[in-house]
Recover the amino acids of this structure.
C-alpha cells in the first residue's frame, strides 16, 4: 500500500520576493503541521526557515497562518485539516518577513518597554487571596505567540504600530493593573501611548488565543472602563472645564 | 537572566545573548514548580531537610556545598520573584502554596498551576528589561575568544542575516541549558544541544558527571508526533497513580514507601522494566491516572496537561488515564564550577543552571532545577561582575576571529557533503539505543565507535542556500556540540562501573561506596578527550551530621 501523503504549500522567500512552493509530506498518526514542516527541512529543503522551540504549545514561537488562519503549528493537527487539497502555510501577515515562515516580531519587544512594570504599594504585606490572584493568572498564561497582534485589524490592516500597542500589551497591562499589590496607575499610558481607544472590540484576538485568554471581555473592556472613569467622567470633565489645571 | 539581573545590580554593563527570542527558552517547559523550604504548608520543613533530600536524591554524589547553598537560599529567591511581580498559587492564609513532589520529604514546590517556568521566565524578563539589559536575540555563539588563559569575548552570528559579530567581554556566564536533543525520545526543545558546555570544553574548561542523564519517567508515548513531550510530575504530585496493563499499581513493588513519588530515576526504571517484561500499555508505556480526582480540580491544577492530552492525543485526562513512558529530560553533569561563584577552571568563564554540574549529583529532584537557576544564576552574576571590575579591557587577536569565521563558513564550502539532518537522526538513534536508561559495556563501546564514525561524517557536512535564517546551516554548529557531549556521556558512562542514580549498568548493578567518593572529569587535550577521576571534597562534620540525621 502506498504511503499516505499530504501537500504543504509553503511560502518561500524573503522581504523582497517569494512564492508558494508545494511539498509532498508522508503522514503519520497524530502529526501536527510543525512535524510536516520539519519533515520538509530534513528531507527536501534544509534551509527552510521556521521558528520553533518547545513543540508543546508552551513557548509561542511557531505562529503561522495555516489555511489562512493564524495558529500555532505545533498545536494544529494534520488530521484536523482537509487533506485532499494543499495546506497553505504562510508567515504572519502583520509583521515584516525575514525569511520563509519567520517574521520580524521585534516591534513587540519595543512596545513592551512602554509599560511601567510591577511596583508594589509601599509597606504591603505579601499575602493575597487565591480569588484575587485567579483573574490575574489568566493573563499571565500568555505565551507571547503574537497571534492576537497578527489578527488585530488595527495592526494588520491599518498598520498603526506607532499609535497602538495591541491586545498582547493590553493583556500585560491588565495583569499589572489588577495585581492585588500593585501601586502604579497605568491608565494614562493606556490612553496616550498604547492607544486603547482604537480597539473597537471585535474579539478577533480572543478567537485566536491558543491559551484561551478572554482578551476582550476580561482585559480590554475592564481597562476601557477604567480609562473612561479617569478621563471621561462627566463630573470630572466639567470640573476641569471650570477649573483648568493650567 | 537571573545572572544578568545580579550583574546589572552590581553596576556592570550586561549583554544577554540568546539563541531564540527572549522569553522562549526551555525554562517555559518547566511545569511543576520551584523547590524551596518556605514551610508555608508543612511547618516542619527547613533547609536542612531540603539539603538532605537533595543529597539523597543525588545518591550523595552532589557537591555538598552547592546543595547547602541551594537549600539555604532558595526561599529568599522565591520571595524576590514575588516582589518582582510573580503570582504563585496561594494557601488559604494567602501565602505561597506548595505541593508534594518526588523525593521531597515535605510539600515544598511553589507553583503556578502547571506553568511555573513560564511565570518565572516572564518575571525575570520584565525585571531585566526594567533594569536595562541589552538583549541580542536569535544570536548564536560558536566560539569563545581568549587572551592567553582567560576568556575575553565570544564570536557569534545573527540568525536573521547570517552576519558575524564579536562580543568583547571581561567575563562570560554560560546559562545555556542541557543536551537532550541528542536522544530520540526527548522532552527537550531544539535549543538543548549543549552549546555552552561545548564552548567551555573547547575553551579548556572541565566537564563533570556527564554520565548522569535524567530520563523523566513520564513523557507522552502516543501519537508518534508528540512522543517525548513532557507530562509534568505534578500529575503524580497531585495524586496521579501509575498502573500497568493488568491494572496493577506496580510502584508498590519497586518503592512501596514512596510509590509514585519516588525519585525520577527509580520511577523511570520501573516503567521501563514493566514495558520490557510485557506489562506495558498498548503503545509501550504505562498508564498514569488522575481521573479519580474531581474534573474541575484537575483542570485548575493541571490546565496545560488537560489541553495537551485533549488536543494532541484525544484523551480527556479527567475521564481516563494517560499513556506515559520515559523521556530524556535533563543532564546532571556539565561544566565544573566553584560552588560559591560559579566560576569554571578557565578565568573569566562562569556557568549556572543545567550547563553547570555539581548540585544534583547522580539524579536531580523535581523542582530543584528552577531554584538552581535562581540561586546559582544570582551567584554567578555577582561573581562575574566582581571579576570583571578587576579586569582591564581585553585585546582580541584577529587571528582567532578569522579562524572562527572560517570554521563557521566551512559547511558552505563543502558541496554535496553530508546532510546535517541525517547525521542528527543517526546520532539520536545511537544515543537512544546504546546510551539510554540501562547501559552495558558492550553497548557503550559500540556507541563510542558509532560516534567516531558520525564525527567523521560531520566533518563533511554541508549547508545549502543563503546565510539568512538557515536552519540547516545552524544544525551544523549544533552537531559539533551534540557529538562532543555524546562522546563525553558515553566515555564517562563506560568508566563508571557501578549503578548510581540515573546511571544504571546492567553489568554492574550495585551502588559501590568506593565509586561514591569520586566524580569523573573530561578535559580536552589537543584534539583528544581525556577522562580523569576527581576525589570528592570532604564534608565538614556538622554538615555530615545533618545528612545522617533522620528527620
Amino acid at each position: 500500500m502506498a504511503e499516505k501523503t499530504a501537500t504543504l504549500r509553503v511560502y518561500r522567500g524573503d522581504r523582497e520576493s517569494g512564492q508558494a512552493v508545494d511539498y509532498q509530506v508522508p503522514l503519520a498518526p497524530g502529526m501536527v503541521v510543525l512535524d510536516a514542516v520539519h519533515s520538509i527541512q530534513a528531507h527536501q529543503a534544509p534551509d527552510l526557515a521556521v521558528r520553533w522551540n518547545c513543540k508543546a504549545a508552551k513557548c509561542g514561537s511557531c505562529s503561522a497562518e495555516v489555511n489562512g488562519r493564524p495558529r500555532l503549528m505545533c498545536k494544529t493537527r494534520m488530521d484536523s485539516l482537509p487533506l485532499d487539497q494543499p495546506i497553505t502555510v504562510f508567515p504572519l501577515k502583520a509583521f515584516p518577513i525575514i525569511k520563509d515562515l519567520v517574521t520580524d516580531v521585534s516591534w513587540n519587544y519595543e512596545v513592551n518597554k512602554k509599560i511601567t512594570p510591577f511596583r508594589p504599594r509601599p509597606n504591603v504585606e505579601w499575602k493575597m487571596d487565591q480569588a484575587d490572584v485567579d483573574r490575574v493568572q489568566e493573563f499571565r498564561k500568555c505565551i507571547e505567540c503574537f497571534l492576537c497582534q497578527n489578527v488585530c485589524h488595527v495592526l494588520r490592516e491599518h498598520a498603526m504600530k506607532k499609535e497602538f500597542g495591541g491586545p498582547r500589551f493590553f493583556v500585560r497591562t491588565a495583569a499589572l493593573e489588577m495585581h492585588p499589590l500593585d501601586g502604579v496607575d497605568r491608565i494614562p499610558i493606556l490612553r496616550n501611548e498604547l492607544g486603547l481607544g482604537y480597539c473597537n472590540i471585535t474579539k478577533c484576538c480572543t478567537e485566536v488565543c491558543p491559551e484561551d485568554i478572554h482578551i476582550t471581555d476580561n482585559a480590554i473592556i475592564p481597562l476601557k472602563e477604567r480609562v473612561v472613569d479617569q478621563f471621561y467622567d462627566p463630573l470630572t470633565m466639567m470640573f476641569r472645564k471650570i477649573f483648568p489645571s493650567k | 537572566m537571573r545572572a544578568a539581573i545580579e550583574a546589572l545590580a552590581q553596576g556592570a554593563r550586561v549583554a544577554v545573548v540568546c539563541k531564540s527570542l527572549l522569553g522562549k527558552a526551555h525554562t517555559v517547559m518547566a511545569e511543576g514548580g520551584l523547590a524551596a523550604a518556605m514551610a508555608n504548608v508543612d511547618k516542619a520543613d527547613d533547609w536542612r531537610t531540603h539539603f538532605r533530600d537533595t543529597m539523597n536524591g543525588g545518591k550523595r554524589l552532589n557537591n555538598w556545598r552547592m546543595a547547602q547553598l541551594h537549600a539555604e537560599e532558595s526561599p529568599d529567591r522565591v520571595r524576590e520573584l514575588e516582589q518582582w511581580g510573580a503570582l504563585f498559587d496561594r494557601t488559604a492564609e494567602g501565602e505561597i502554596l506548595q505541593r508534594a513532589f518526588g523525593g521531597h520529604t515535605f510539600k515544598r514546590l511553589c507553583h503556578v498551576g502547571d506553568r511555573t517556568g513560564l511565570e518565572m521566565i516572564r518575571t525575570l524578563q520584565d525585571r531585566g528589561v526594567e533594569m536595562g539589559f541589552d538583549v541580542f536575540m536569535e544570536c548564536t555563539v560558536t566560539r569563545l575568544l581568549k587572551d592567553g588563559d582567560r576568556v575575553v569575548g565570544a564570536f557569534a552570528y545573527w540568525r536573521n542575516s547570517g552576519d558575524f559579530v564579536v562580543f568583547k567581554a571581561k567575563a562570560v556566564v554560560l546559562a545555556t541549558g542541557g543536551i537532550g536533543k541528542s536522544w530520540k525520545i526527548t522532552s527537550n526543545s531544539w535549543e538543548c544541544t549543549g552549546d555552552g558546555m561545548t564552548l567551555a570544553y573547547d575553551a579548556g574548561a572541565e566537564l563533570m558527571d556527564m554520565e548522569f542523564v535524567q530520563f523523566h519517567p513520564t513523557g507522552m508515548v502516543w501519537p508518534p508526533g508528540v512522543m517525548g513531550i513532557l507530562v509534568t510530575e505534578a500529575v503524580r504530585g497531585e495524586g496521579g497513580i501509575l498502573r500497568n496493563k493488568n491494572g496493577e499499581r506496580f510502584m508498590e513493588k519497586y518503592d512501596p514507601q514512596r510509590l509514585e513519588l519516588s525519585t525520577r530515576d527509580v520511577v523511570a526504571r520501573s516503567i521501563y522494566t514493566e514495558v520490557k517484561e510485557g506489562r506495558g500499555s498498548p503503545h509501550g508505556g504505562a498508564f498514569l491516572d488522575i481521573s479519580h480526582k474531581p474534573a474541575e480540580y484537575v483542570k485548575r491544577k493541571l490546565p496545560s496537561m488537560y489541553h495537551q492530552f485533549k488536543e494532541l492525543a484525544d484523551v480527556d485526562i479527567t475521564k481516563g488515564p494517560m499513556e506515559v513512558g520515559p523521556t530524556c529530560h535533563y543532564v546532571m553533569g556539565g561544566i565544573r564550577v566553584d560552588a560559591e561563584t560559579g566560576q569554571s577552571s578557565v578565568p573569566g568563564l562562569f556557568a549556572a543552571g543545567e550547563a553547570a554540574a555539581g548540585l544534583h549529583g547522580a539524579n536531580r529532584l523535581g523542582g530543584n532545577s528552577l531554584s538552581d537557576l535562581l540561586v546559582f544564576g544570582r551567584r554567578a552574576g555577582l561573581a562575574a561582575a566582581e571579576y570583571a571590575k578587576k579586569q582591564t579591557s581585553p585585546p582580541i587577536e584577529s587571528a582567532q576571529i578569522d579562524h572562527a569565521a572560517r570554521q563557521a563558513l566551512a559547511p558552505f564550502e563543502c558541496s554535496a557533503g553530508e546532510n546535517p539532518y541525517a547525521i542528527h537522526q543517526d546520532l539520536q538513534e545511537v544515543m537512544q539505543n546504546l546510551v539510554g536508561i540501562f547501559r552495558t559495556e558492550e553497548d557503550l563501546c559500540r556507541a563510542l565507535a558509532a560516534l567516531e564514525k558520525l564525527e567523521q561524517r560531520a566533518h563533511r557536512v554541508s549547508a545549502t542556500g543563503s546565510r539568512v535564517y538557515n536552519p540547516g546551516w545552524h544544525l551544523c554548529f549544533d552537531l559539533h556540540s551534540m557529538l562532543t557531549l555524546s562522546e563525553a556521556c558515553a566515555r564517562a558512562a563506560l568508566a563508571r562501573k557501578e549503578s548510581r542514580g540515573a546511571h544504571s549498568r546492567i553489568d554492574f548493578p550495585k551502588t559501590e561506596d568506593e565509586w561514591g567518593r569520586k566524580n569523573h572529569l573530561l578535559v580536552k587535550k589537543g584534539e583528544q578527550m581525556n577522562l580523569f577521576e576527581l576525589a570528592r571534597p570532604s564534608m565538614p562534620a556538622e554538615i555530615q551530621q545533618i545528612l545522617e540525621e533522620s528527620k
Observations:
- The domain at 214-328 of chain B is CATH 3.90.700.10 (Flavocytochrome C3; Chain A, domain 1).
- Chain B touches chain A through 67 residues (CB under 8 Å).
- The mean pLDDT of chain B is 96.
- The CA atoms of residues 263 and 308 of chain B lie 24 Å apart.
